[in-house]
Fold these 2 entries.
Entry 1:
Amino acid sequence: MVDHLANTEINSQRIAAVESCFGASGQPLALPGRVLLGEGVLTKECRKKAKPRIFFLFNDILVYGSIVLSKRKYRSQHIIPLEEVTLEPLPETLEAKNRWMIKTAKKSFVVSAASTTERQEWISHIEECVRRQLLATGRQPTTEHAAPWIPDKATDICMRCTQTRFSALTRRHHCRKCGFVVCAECSRERFLLPRLSSKPLRVCSLCYRELSTQKQREEAKERCRGSPGQSAYLGGTVSGASSGDEDDSDEDREGDWPSQVEFYTSGVSWSAFHS
Ligand SMILES: [Zn+2]
Ligand SMILES: [Zn+2]
């Protein structure tokens, strides 16, 4: 595809430019054989609202970050190894067109492109890279994906009890297993989800029951095999009222897009793929 770009001067310059935009806040990106294939602005659906994010597609990783100053300064860099990525096209909504989901074991999220053509370009380029990465590493595609978080705005009531109405005082929480927006009462439990974190995470009551049952079944199976029981902390109820504050701690710390910036008319050039 763009193998001829590997280890070329132009490719090194492009990668150096990306590194310099992220500055000290980003990771070194240059690696022997790594090629920067394309870049562009996509709209990422975050918990509170959809925000523009700069995306860079390399032959082995997808990098994105928030835009401080277009083509000058980016921050909050995220790096996703492509062999972990699965894409899922999504239907259009009234608010958003040209959407698709980027799914990995750790995190899944929805992005949209400025046009159908751009969406097609991104999807086909990413899928081709994923295919090549899987071939090169001999890995199987990831089948278990993190549930994307349902945006806050999608619901005014708890999606589990359907009773609690959210307000400034009654905060929304997200189940880390199913991604549903739930009330504090419906998400009192914590469970260890090793793919997501080394610490037990907030889960809704339904997921907690399912995860516990599954866990018990696995433990019973272990006992039958006669292996010594392992006592690991696997979760439990959190005592006391939950303030909900910790929900902010693992939100993307990406900051708000300054509302006075007219993004669509600011002369940002859209996605470009190198050939
Ligand atoms: Zn509830
Ligand atoms: Zn859940």
Entry 2:
Amino acid sequence: MSRWRCMSCQAIYHDTLPDGSRYAHTCSPEVVEHATFDPGGKQLTPERRYARPIIRNENWAADSTEENPRIISEGKGRIVDLETP
Ligand SMILES: [Zn+2]
């Protein structure tokens, strides 16, 4: 079991569930940047929501086969996560 970091949305996840089955990460389709406030409560920046431009979707593509497995979308890829405890 490996721990991965999605380079599209920065999610950290394992690709194997506790029961041994495969976990297929899919990015949230929406990016939410929360509003920021100063210590007095004055809003500095507004909340922003927008469609994630590049989504990783690890579910099997319709034409995926056991001999030639293919996910729906690579997005920006993923890397092994070594930093998160
Ligand atoms: Zn993601």
